[in-house]
Recover the amino acids of this structure.
């Protein structure tokens, strides 16, 4: 996991924790008296899953000595949610300035979709109409004849 795919990573983990009934290890701190040998083994497994699936940069930031799954989970979550507004500003700029240049149409649309998904994941969704307008804005000039066709359609095209 890196900065660009936190929501995918989180979805994977929510699914995995649910599959094994381990949500309690990350949802709320377990009282010390309830931490027996079995709890420690399972918690170490969840810690291992988290640390094994993040990028080296994220690992270096969130790793702490003597951490449990709850503290590690919330350190990871905080890393990506604390800088939400700053990330939104950078992503919006990327979205508004992205140019197709020599990218294939598929690569260009995929890049736009990734940025839009990242903005949605941090609570800044982009409307379908705005996505189409950004697509058209950054198109390579060789596609200039497509713009009137797309903008004249009613109802408007979706991304």
């Amino acid at each position: 996991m890196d900065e660009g795919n936190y929501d995918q990573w989180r979805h994977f983990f929510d699914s995995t924790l649910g599959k094994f009934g381990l949500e309690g290890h990350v949802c709320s701190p377990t009282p010390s008296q309830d931490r027996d040998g079995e709890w420690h083994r399972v918690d170490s497994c969840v810690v291992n899953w988290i640390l094994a699936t993040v990028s080296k940069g994220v690992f270096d930031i969130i790793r702490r000595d003597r951490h449990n799954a709850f503290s590690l989970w919330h350190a990871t979550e905080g890393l990506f949610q604390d800088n939400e507004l700053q990330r939104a500003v950078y992503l919006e700029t990327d979205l508004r300035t992205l140019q197709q240049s020599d990218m294939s149409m598929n690569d260009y649309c995929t890049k736009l979709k990734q940025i839009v998904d990242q903005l949605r994941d941090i609570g800044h969704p982009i409307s379908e109409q705005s996505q189409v307008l950004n697509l058209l804005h950054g198109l390579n000039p060789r596609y200039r004849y497509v713009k009137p066709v797309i903008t004249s359609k009613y109802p408007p095209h979706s991304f």
